[in-house]
Design brief:
Structural class: alpha+beta
Number of helices: 3
Strand content: 35-45%
Order of helices and strands: EHEEEHEHEEEE
Strand order of the largest sheet: 2-3-4-5-1-6-7-8-9
CATH topology: Alpha-Beta Plaits
Radius of gyration: 14 Å
CATH architecture: 2-Layer Sandwich
CATH class: Alpha Beta
Distance between the termini: 23 Å
Shape: globular
Number of strands: 9
């Protein structure tokens, strides 16, 4: 079964530049000219649609320039590593961006950075339980419940 996460990001990087950055810094192989592959992971970058931009702008008060889709194979024995690579990629892109939000299935907030403040959604169990992903976050952050304006 595939799980889909999307990073909506305000940045000066274009999709191709962002892919090159991820490929070089994380050592990810190219899948095709607009995607990368990793352990149980497929990464695709594009510009958001006008409707997508409007939805994010209305809900989160920033206008995304890049949409990064992460598809994770939850049946793979490499699922945990794929999840960790997704978070590393997200953090790397946030370093080169302004505001951003990582969503599960387009609506549930996993983390967000708005006005320079990084917040992890405390309701996402994998931060401290299960996969214990909070260890992947090296930037200063806080953790609190983040109700989604998209639901």
């Amino acid at each position: 079964m595939g799980l889909e996460y999307g990073l909506e990001l305000s940045t000066d990087l274009g999709p191709t530049q962002a892919l090159r950055l991820l490929a070089e810094r994380l050592g990810l192989p190219w899948g095709n000219e607009r995607s990368l592959r990793g352990s149980a992971l497929w990464i695709d970058l594009s510009e958001p649609s006008n409707t997508g931009r409007e939805i994010i702008e209305e809900g989160f008060h920033f206008r995304p320039d890049v949409l990064v889709i992460f598809r994770l194979d939850s049946n793979s024995d490499q699922y945990e590593e794929g999840h960790r690579v997704m978070l590393r990629a997200t953090m790397l892109l946030l370093e080169h961006g302004r505001d951003g939000v990582l969503l599960f299935n387009g609506e549930r907030i996993i983390l967000q950075r708005l006005a320079g403040e990084l917040v992890l959604n405390a309701d996402y169990g994998n931060w401290t339980k299960g996969l214990q992903l909070e260890n992947e976050i090296q930037l200063p952050h806080e953790k609190r419940p983040l109700p989604s304006p998209l639901l």
